[in-house]
Amino acid sequence: MKKCQVHCVELEKGKAPVFYGLPDSPPMDYLDAQKTLFPNSFLFVLGGCLIDDKTESVVKFCPNCRQAEKVWTGRGLK
User: Fold this and answer.
1) Cα-atom radius of gyration of the chain, to the nearest Å?
2) How many CB atoms are closer than 10 A to CB 49?
3) d(Cα 42, Cα 5) in Å, to the nearest integer?
4) C-alpha triplet 69, 71, 76: angle, nearest 5°
5) How far apart are the two ends of the chain, measured CA to CA in Å?
6) b/e per residue, 22-40, with b = 16+ CB within 10 A?
7) Which of 4, 33, 64, 67 has a CA between 20 and 30 Å from the CA of residue 13?
8) All residues at 6 or more sequence positions from 15 whose CB lies less than 8 Å from its CB, including other chains
9) pLDDT in 10s for each residue of the chain, 78 residues
């Protein structure tokens, strides 16, 4: 199994919601943070422009990356 290059933990198998349509481009600071802080979060999957019945997808993710992304975006703070 593959390990996260940032957190050095094995990736876990799980599910992520699928979002359809053309998303806005994320800000550059987010893209920079994603590369260095949470490259394997996979909180969601882009499904493309053609809407399908598929609402979630199986992904391999790093739980530490998911937490880091939530904290970075402010969704992990209470």
Assistant:
1) 13
2) 8
3) 14
4) 110
5) 33
6) eeeeeeeeeeebbeebbbb
7) 33
8) 56, 57, 58, 59
9) 699 999 999 999 999 999 999 888 888 999 999 999 999 999 999 999 999 999 999 999 999 999 999 999 987 655
Q: What is the pTM of this model?
A: 0.82
CA–CA separation, 4 and 35 (whole Å): 12
Quick one: tokens of 33? Answer: 């943070």
Q: State the burial class of residue 68 (Cβ atoms within 10 Å of its Cβ: 0-12, 13-18, 19+).
A: buried
What is the amino acid identity at position 36? T
Structure tokens given for 53? 């019945």
